[in-house]
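Two records follow; treat each independently.
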Amino acid sequence: MVLFNEFRPTAVAAGWARLRDRGLPPTARVISIGGPETGCSFGSNPGLLFRRHASGPVAQLDRALASGARGREFESRRARSSQLEASSAIGVDEASLLLDQPGSHAPTPQRRSGAYEAMRDRTHDLLASRPPERARSRKQPWIRSLAILVAVSLSPTGSADAQRGAARALAAIRSAEEHGLPPARYGLPRLEQLIRTDPIAADSALTINLIRLAEDLRYGRVRPNPYSNTRQNEQVDIAAAVRTALAADTVPELIDAMAPAFPQYRQLREALRRAPRDSSEPTQKIRLTMERLRWLPRRVEGRIVLVNIPAFQLSAFDSPDFGGSAALTMPVIVGRARSTRTPQLAAQMRTVEFRPFWNVPQSILAGELLPAMRKNPRYLIEHDMEIVGPGDTVLGDTYDTDTLDRLSRGELRIRQRATKRNALGAVKFEFPNPSSIFLHDTPDKNLFSRERRDLSHGCIRLADPTAMAEWSLGNHPGWNRDSTERAMAGPSRRIMSVTQPTMVILFYGTAEAIPEGGIRYYQDIYGLDRQLTATLHATR
């Protein structure tokens, strides 16, 4: 049986012909999988079937493998041609894989052993003859490795080694619960029954579910997520890793390697292991925080600045796994829950700017400043602000109706001078990102005495910007706290590069393992836990 990740009838038929020309066994069957639940049969091509499932790619493969290993025909239906026009993410003959021998019934282990090996090797040769460049696309980076895994790595079912391997693989899948993942997502308890009643089907289903579990541990269940763009270069050949683990009997080690190595994750996992297996709010907060930790970048060099939004806290770490004691911690102010939420993101810190201007964002200008300026002609003077034109030409702090109209159209902008009333205070920390979020000082120090501090327009206000600047620039020769304080009190703007790699991660975790031991829980101020719970429930 050959499986295509393709759903255009003409492309499937063409790919079928090409594979037959390149030596595919003439009695083989082909199945095509894709998006919404539609189907089409090809009566003129014996053995060529078409099937589309409504669920995601890994679930499709699970169902295709489990059914195909038992030799079942896939039910197909005629679909409107308009539903079959969209292009797939990968070419039809570039992701084919041999799943099992053809036939209307499952082959016995004795029949399967020799013929299966020969057909498996033939498919491997077909795959190797043309490297599927598009298979490494961001849309489906796992297709090629999955194809090679299923074509090459499955051992004949029925031997004692295979039975022991199945037991170990099943134990690894049961361990999903320790990671806050539902074992039912990975085939339990159906797999347990298959191992007893249909070992051939169990062989394929175990492999596919191990791949699915490893993917979820490596990237999280929700994909894409707020950090996906920062992990484009982190793709791992998970199927090859599963193949190696199955062959070397190291499946438990594989599962540990796919999970985050962050100490925070390990501590939450241990807390979850001890917690009641229920849906109580504390337990659910641990599970959701572990899911978000799985989203985070893994290949980070240098240092980490972690802002936990619902905790209203920043922690700076000298190591990339934000493990051990933080080099620096401080309270922060984050975006308002009702209107200007701080986003989850990760980006490299590039510069520290002393005595900065505050360039007022267009959203704040339109929503707050322009109405105030129309009521009070002296508004800019009273707030140390000025109008700026093209090329940073300063146009002053007085205005008329025409100036207000040009400001509303974005032809002019407003900035606040570097005075004591500047909203950014004496220093800001830039890490370029699509949301234009940055860390900064604030003149409103009294706000840090509040327990709940979602008070900003989205950027992060720091309780101790001096310590943050000293830490960020500590790699500069001779730079110390005195240097920082002089720069913050200086007469003019000064921009310095952050030369040591430093990633800023804006994170949303309502459960945190604390150094003193135990778990601290935080209020779900943005309602993101409720949203994530609903998303995960919909993808079980």
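The next record belongs to a different protein.
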Amino acid sequence: MALDIEPTIMVANVVTNLSKFATTCVTKYADVKISEKQQETKLKIAHANIEAQAELEKNLQNHEQELEMSRQQFQERMAHLGFRQQITLEQARQEFEFKLQSLDHQHQKTIENFKAEVDVAINQKNLDFQQWKFEQEIELQQQLAADNRETQLRIAEEQRKTAMDSIEYGKILQKWPLRLVPRQIIDTHKNKDPIPLCVLISPLKVDDNTQKALGQNLKKLVKDYYNITDKKRPIHLLYDAWDKEAFDYGNFDDITVDMLFDRLKSEPMLVLDSEVIDNNLTLKAFYWGLKQEEGSHYLDEEILSLPINGETLSQVFLTSHCLVTAWMADIHYLIYYNVPPKLPALLPELLSNDKFNLLPLSKIVTEIVAGYNNTFKALEVEQPHLVPKLALDLGFNLACLEDKKFVNEQINNSITAFLRSRQCSDFKLIGNDEQLQNILVYGGDNDYFEKLKQLISVIGTENVIPEANNLLRAWSKVVILHQLEQTIGKKLSKLDKIEYDSVGYVQNEYDEITEL
């Protein structure tokens, strides 16, 4: 039994071992298969990965290409849209700038118009103020002169009462040199304004014909131009008024004048005393005006001393007396009553060139002009506004003379007085338009420059002093630029004026005005 069991056990062991071996073999085979399968799977996976990678790369490339195309298309589109937008923006910007510029231009124009209106208003106010100031100065000067005349008239009235109420009056009449007593002369002038200037000619030491001719000439002069009824320059001519029996007629001297002055100091008077010795004419003037205060005296001055010959004696004697009478009367009424001189207008009539060519008459005119010049200088102290035009008036009437030095002297005096009236004494200012505008009164100076222009046209621009032409040209520029400012409605700046001048605008306008 034991033997039987052992083979069974052995078979069982063999089977078991075979089973294990088989299992092992199967397991190894399986492992090999699994390994192979895994290897194959790995290969497949690797291959699949490669294919997937290739496909992925291909797809990636395709995607990138599509993306690039899309990007390009997008950029093209965006560029197109951007261009259109840029155009739209540029148009909008341009429209905005145009509107802004338009608004700015309108605003600027509004500002400029307002500024121009303000400038014009200020300029006009400035001109109005200058004009007002100029007129006020003239009015004040005239008022002072009027007050002075009123004072003089009151003093004269008091002197009249004294002259007739004095205890000595009766004694004086015993030796009174005139046929008219003081009361008669004073009563003739009573309530007259202006008080007439009495004119006496001292006893003459010439032949009867010359005396008669002188009387006729003086009476005609006074009747025509200085009539006693005249309201501006009356002369009371006392010709042949000497009382030849009351005093030594042949010995007229200062004592005689003293007597006249003592009783008639209230009446303005001119006494002309002439003497001819050795073909030499001497003419002396005794003169007093109004307001003869206590202790004052009369003018005692030799007016002329002329060498003459027998052929010219009568003419020079007559003409010199008439000229000096008119001249002294003019000075009297100019000083006391602001009446412009009359004699300058009479010179062409009283002095023909033929007469003037005589040396003595030339000297008479020279002395008369010098006398006017001195009077103008004295008048300039109180009433400087009168002198520039007075000098031109005198120049007008000297223009008839062949020698233009007399008229040019008056033009020079007139310009000098004009500049001095504006507190300027430098002739160089005439060449400086900017500074000249500061002293000119546009409205107030028109009459003066118009008169200067007329005088220049009378004697010719080629015969006048350069300063006159230069001043008139400068004034014309001021007028033209002022008219331009009024036209454009704004005040021109200094640069604007220079520009208008440089392009010839002012000169062209001046030439056109000159031609007219």
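Discussion point: The CA atoms of residues 427 and 467 lie 8 Å apart. How would you locate this feature using only the token line?
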